[in-house]
Amino acid sequence: MYKKTLVSLLMVLFTGTLILKGQPTGNSTVDLLMSAYSARMFTSDPVSDSDLDLILKCGLKAPSARNGQPWKFTVVRDNALVAGVISNATPGNVLILVSGPESSQQGMNSDFDYALATENMYIAAQALGLGARIYTGPVSSINSGKKQTLNIPDGYRVVAVLRVGHVSKDVDASSSASTRKTIEEVVNYR
Asked: What pTM, to 2 d.p., does this model score?
């Protein structure tokens, strides 16, 4: 009994170590999450309408408090407008501006809802073999003077910007991603 328990524990520890080091687990969702990274180097290959549609549908499927689904998504494909939002724009990239009602109180459930919708689309883009990056830096500039130009719905404020585009096949999570903290630095057990 003791030997079986010890072997089982060692298997779990070994498997956990492989997962943390990016080794395949055989579970496509876990493997995707372990290999995902925020892309920085995009190519100018355009994002297809079918990929964009699927990414947006994944955003719609995000959970939300009391199923309120408070978000609106604004797709920006115009290269000049994209360049007006992010400084290192690449032709062919798409921005998805995630907005929520101005009347919603910041820091409440709705902010978490917007984050879940953004993350769903981020993961969907990566699952389709595209690069994705979430920005919050441009939000203030958009909300203070670019909402009308970007066609943000009346009564809404932008809370996040998701960039989607193709990345070079030579780039991967191991060579491109910044280092991550160890599990010991982040997790506490009691």
From this structure: 0.80
